[in-house]
TrEMBL record:
Its EC number is 5.1.3.14. Keywords: Isomerase. InterPro entries: UDP_GlcNAc_Epimerase_2_dom (IPR003331), WecB-like (IPR029767). GO terms for molecular function: UDP-N-acetylglucosamine 2-epimerase activity. Belongs to the UDP-N-acetylglucosamine 2-epimerase family. Pfam families: Epimerase_2. The lineage of its organism: Bacteria, Pseudomonadati, Pseudomonadota, Alphaproteobacteria, Sphingomonadales. The keyword Transcription does not apply. Residues 24-370 form the UDP-N-acetylglucosamine 2-epimerase domain. It comes from Stakelama tenebrarum. NCBIfam families: wecB. The gene is wecB. PANTHER family: UDP-N-ACETYLGLUCOSAMINE 2-EPIMERASE (PTHR43174). Gene3D superfamilies: Glycogen Phosphorylase B. This is UDP-N-acetylglucosamine 2-epimerase (non-hydrolyzing). It comes from the Bacteria.
Length: 376
């Protein structure tokens, strides 16, 4: 009998970062035909990760179009992925997280009665508008999947509360920690992978670096403007420098271009490829973000992370004391940053390395469970 086929479907940068360790672990495990399909919901950011991870997708739907609505994206994903599944006829589909690609990937598999494994299952903020539309995307995958790879006990408990069969829920850790640790090791062995930040490190020598990322849809508009005002006020201090890889979404770029202008101690730069971003995290004194993945990476590196959101589906970083929710209120962001800059004990209390999200072996556990499901 032919080896069973596992098809991994993904479309954005964070999905690629969190799935490349799974692709590699499945290939190492053997006995399965491992196929990858990218929707390219985010084209450029996805390609940066594929290149570094050495993945050439078997199928590339190239679905990104500038300014497409969620309706248009979802409709194109449905027909595109449906056609792929009919051609590939996989024995299992694997999706990750909470994007439109993940939700529609699971739905098209369900329409064909193909079993679905969900990596990073069980994250819940409890508010369908924060993060939007991710909270509903991930909730919709839960009743479809028959293998739920929960990163933490908290995530597993959320699935249990939704009456998901406990036998189908596996606490594996988050594959983001696998990606982070493997990439740190690679940078140590091949420093040329992240040399692009040397000039910024020199330019900002002696200053404390604040690494900023923002891209959440629900922060577009007023939230983004408040974030820009806060960044400008923080940059009034001479003892700090901000490294800000700006997400290419026009809702982010246009606000930051208009409101931040040219300032000596703000480096507004293009999105960094993954090794360079890990190096930037290493250089940072404080991280200011509304990202999901960065909330997981910063605690692992012992970097205080201020989260510009009202709620989080990643309470483990907050419980560990490394992450704090600060919302998108300009004054709150400025005062929280100032406290960390001016009060050493407040800083030390947050700057402790914790790994509540995983031990770096999540992908291997996932590969084992998938193989076991095929009787391998
Ligand atoms: N990241 C990156 N380059 C950047 C900014 C972020 O490689 O310039 C990585 C980061 O390390 C994390 C992931 O992208 O693993 C987070 O992606 P994003 O914030 O876009 O999405 P989210 O995690 O909020 O879904």
């Amino acid at each position: 009998m032919a080896n069973p086929t596992v098809l991994l479907i993904f479309g954005t940068r964070p999905e690629a970062i969190k799935l490349f360790p799974v692709v590699q672990a499945l290939q190492r495990r053997g006995g399965m035909r491992v196929r990858t399909c990218v929707t390219a919901q985010h084209r450029g950011l996805l390609d940066q990760v594929l290149e570094i991870a050495g993945i050439s997708p078997d199928i590339d739907l190239d679905l990104m179009q500038p300014g497409q609505t969620l309706d248009q994206l979802t409709a194109r994903l449905l027909t595109g992925l449906g056609t792929v599944l009919d051609a590939e006829r996989p024995d299992r589909v694997i999706v990750q997280g909470d994007t439109a690609t993940a939700m529609v990937g699971a739905l098209t598999a369900y329409y064909r009665k193909t079993p679905v494994g969900h990596v990073e299952a069980g994250l819940r903020s409890g508010d369908i508008h924060h993060p939007w539309p991710e909270e509903v995307n991930r909730r919709m995958i839960a009743p479809i999947a028959d293998l739920h790879f929960a990163p933490t006990q908290t995530a597993a408990a959320a699935l249990h509360r939704e009456n998901i069969d406990p036998a189908s829920v596996h606490v594996t850790g988050n594959t983001v920690i696998d990606a982070l640790l493997a990439t740190r090791d690679r940078i140590a062995a091949e420093p040329e992978l992240a040399v692009g930040l040397d000039s910024l490190a020199n330019r900002f020598a002696g200053k404390r670096i604040i690494l900023v990322t923002t891209h959440r849809r629900e922060n577009f508009g007023g939230g983004m403007e408040a974030i820009a005002r806060a960044i400008a006020r923080i940059a009034d201090r001479e003892d700090v420098a901000l490294i800000f890889p700006v997400h290419p979404n026009p809702n982010v770029v246009s606000v930051m271009d208009a409101m931040l202008g040219d300032r000596a101690n703000i480096a507004r730069i293009d999105p960094l490829d993954y090794p360079h971003f890990i190096r930037a995290l290493d250089m940072a004194h404080i991280v200011l973000t509304d990202s999901g993945g960065v909330q997981e990476e910063a605690p692992a590196l012992g970097k205080p992370v201020l989260v510009m959101r009202e709620t989080t589906e990643r309470p483990e970083g907050v419980a560990a004391g490394t992450a704090r929710l600060v919302g998108t209120d300009e004054s709150r962001i400025v005062s929280e940053i100032s406290t960390l800059l001016d009060d050493n004990s407040a800083y030390s209390a947050m700057a402790r390395a914790h790994n509540p999200f995983g031990d770096g072996h999540a992908a291997q556990r996932i590969a084992e469970i998938v193989a076991h499901g095929f009787g391998l």
